[in-house]
Amino acid sequence: MNTDKEGAAPTLPSSQTPQTGKARLALHGGDPVRRTPWPTYDKGAVFVHPEDEEAALRAIRSHLYFRYDYRAQHDTECGRFEEDLCRYLGSRHALAVSSGTTAIALAIMAAGIPPGSLIACPGFTFVATPSAIVLAGCTPLLVEVDENLQMDLDDLRRRWTPGIKGILVVHMRGFAADVEALTRFAAEMGVPLFEDAVPAFGAELRGRKLGTFGLAGAFSTQSDKSLNCGEGGFLATDDSVLFARAVVLSGAYEGRFRRHFPDGDPPIATDLDLPLLSFRMDEIRAALLRAEMKRLPLRLERFRTNYAYVAQALADLPQIAIRRPVAPGAYLGEAFIFRVPGADAGWFARALCCEGVDARNLGSDRDTNVRVFWNWRFLFGDQDVEEIKALLPATTRHLREAVDVPLSSSLSTEDCDHLIRAVRKVAGALGTDYHAPDPLRPGTVRADPVRPDPVRSGPVGTAPAGQ
Ligand SMILES: *Cc1c(COP(=O)(O)O)cnc(C)c1O
Predict the structure, then answer these.
(1) CB 23 within 8 A of CB 426
(2) Which of the listed residues 129, 195, 373, 404 should we mutate to test ligand 1's pocket, taking the one with most ligand atoms within 8 A of CB?
(3) With 0-12 CB in 10 A as exposed, 13-18 as middle and 19+ as buried, what is 287?
(4) Is 462 exposed, middle or buried (0-12, 13-18, 19+ CB in 10 A)?
(5) Neighbours of 203 (CB within 10 A)
(6) Hey, is 337 helix, strand or coil?
(7) Closest residue (by CA) to atom 15 of ligand 1?
């Protein structure tokens, strides 16, 4: 690989030269652990079966794309998908919508949170979380995360003000938040708890599905999530009034919300006392999702198996601190996150990229990562970035130390082995390697980008062995 951009490397004092016997880092011109692109959804590494494609084609050929046409609810793809979701999650109601972000916003709006209220959310989450709060007319109140990047309940207590009218907990990167403790706290404060379970569909905490702890749970079906129809999402709740209001807001006009209550009276009488926001899902995507639900358990199993394999193989590495779940197995397994305490995590991530594994240092200064609160300009105007970081000093510290590696469900055992070898190789060079100041421009993470080459998982039966 070309390491010209890293030019500083080989002119090292001899004491800092990598010892003989140690593999030379690809960052410094050594052989990379792998030369094929790291599989990710945006290079086409997705979990879609031919039967799923057929289901979408059937829906396309039906020419019935609108969920609220002449058919009864249980004859539509959206209606059936929602029935499947209720069964799977064990929740009373589910509503398919246009995205995870709109699902979160609908939950807040449908719960009747007055516009202008504060909603508490963690300082480490995808930018869609605070954005959804803004979309619902409210203001995010950011809370520190702990070293495992989970919302810190003690900090939430410290920051509490009567202006906070709801808590939005996030199961970020598929790791369960301590939602049991947060639910108790929300009850103590007399406010609802909402779950951004957007990246965690199918994951559980102590046998209970994430997204079913709070008043409502929001999920996404965007290409990078447990179910993938390109763009989309859904909301799950046991609260019939919240559900009915969300249905209306999402775009069930002229009494169509009644179709969602086939067995009884809907708990609201009219619809035009709420605005109509057109956050509906269409029949084509619902057909694709309904088909994907059948193989969801298999996909979840692959995520879990791969994650457990990688985490176990690297558990003994003293240089890294792997993100710990709040309870055994309380994660999806779609990302491998670790901290590199006391070392340069930006250097670590770049070295991994050069070895052929996509990795990002979450709190990098060179990379405007949207998961990092100090990049959320829409909340802070032209406030100085150092002042913004000082609002959540612990979160800032943890994010600066954190490295994030995506784990597609299509990873083979060989891919996992590459990741393990690459992390060991880079960790082994820590301390002996000279961490040259990096000349990369902002917005780039790879020193030597691996050219995207579309990879695509085949049908389940043909997937590489060992997944
Ligand atoms: C992906 C994601 C979202 C946004 O979902 P969309 O369907 O893209 O709107 C929100 N929150 C988290 C934590 C996410 O990972």
Answers:
(1) no
(2) 129
(3) buried
(4) exposed
(5) 25
(6) strand
(7) 199
| Best residue for ligand 1 mutational test, from 198, 219, 250 (most atoms within 8 Å of Cβ) | 198
The domains of the chain, with CATH numbers, are: 4-46+295-462 (3.90.1150.10), 50-294 (3.40.640.10)
Sheet containing 360-361: which strands, arranged edge to edge?
321-322, 335-339, 402-406, 360-361
Which amino acid makes up residue 447? Answer: A
Tokens of 335: 């990302």
Residue 361 DSSP symbol: E
User: Given ligand 1 and candidates 97, 126, 219, which is best to mutate, with the most ligand atoms within 8 Å of its CB?
Assistant: 126
DSSP 282-294: PHHHHHHHHHHHH
Answer yes or no: are the C-beta atoms of 272 and 95 closer than 8 Å.
no
**Tens-digit pLDDT profile for the chain (467 aa)?**
333 333 333 333 333 344 445 789 999 999 999 999 999 999 999 999 999 999 999 999 999 999 999 999 999 999 999 999 999 999 999 999 999 999 999 999 999 999 999 999 999 999 999 999 999 999 999 999 999 999 999 999 999 999 999 999 999 999 999 999 999 999 999 999 999 999 999 999 999 999 999 999 999 999 989 999 999 999 999 999 999 999 999 999 999 999 999 888 899 988 999 999 999 999 999 999 999 999 999 999 999 999 999 999 999 999 999 999 999 999 999 999 999 999 999 999 999 999 999 999 999 999 899 999 999 999 999 999 999 999 999 999 999 999 999 999 999 999 999 999 999 999 999 977 545 444 443 433 333 333 333 333 333 323 333 32
Residues in the ligand 1 pocket, defined by CB under 6 Å: 99-101, 125-126, 128-129, 170, 172, 196, 198-199, 220, 222, 233
Residue nearest to atom 6 of ligand 1 (CA): 100
Q: HEC string of 128-150?
A: HHHHHHHHCCCEEEEECECCCCC
DSSP summary character for residue 151? B
Helix (H, G, I), strand (E, B) or coil at 453: coil
Residue 108: helix, strand or coil by DSSP? helix
Residue type at 448?
D
